[in-house]
# Entry
Amino acid sequence: MATYNCGQKAENTLQSIFAQKKDLFELIVMDGASTDDTLDYIKKYESDLTLVSEKDDGVYHAFNKAIDLATGKYLYFIGAGDCLKPNILERIKEFLPTDEPTFAYGYCYFVKQKVFNGREFTGELFIRDNLCQQGIFHHRAIFDIVGKFDLRYKILADWFLNLKCFIEPQIKKQYIPCLIADYEEGGLSAEVSSDPVFVKDFSRFIREQFGVSKFIICKMFLKNPLLFNLIYSAQYRALTNYWIDNYTLPKHLISFARPYVHGYKRLKKSYRK
# Structure
């Protein structure tokens, strides 16, 4: 858990964590040397967590330091203000293999936007979308394979890490059909525009991995995410409607009729005998 001058938000998150079954987790709080009352709230629970409060170079630097301290098989990253859903650790433990590096992910609820975020992903979907960090459980071996969070990216280092995990064949991808957490923040468009180093490097990485056509799509998205998604959504709806009108209905009719046709042929053959 990363904190910095977040006040009572820290306690809200802590309460959601300590409501989980206690033998399923250890908690490391990386505080960036808060100057408000954040540490007062955290120290209420000090006997049940590891607290490090010192200046850092942002949230991903804090998470990287926590990776070195953690002893668990899986690592989960959360920010102050985000809250785990009740009993979620108990519910998902069966989805987490212990014997192979696994990137396990579910979905989250974006509190400010009032939307659910998350679905089963492929590597190419990262060209214009990202998984919510609060829905992901990382087998610790992942960081030996692809490295930690890249500190060149101040806002979107998790996006780059997630994509690298998805295109790495050594890492198993496991979708968890569960609501993992409430995520306080939101707003992908603002995040993209706030991380110019990510914008520059990410599109080049997409070209190397997926080719020129995907590179062009990625550049269009990064240039104006909101406009791109509006256009993409309209095109998708139009294509879906066309497919339904021209292909899906006939195919459904054929699928519906096929067993009856085969049944009639078998009956006719049997009658002739």
Notes: Residues 224-273 form one domain.
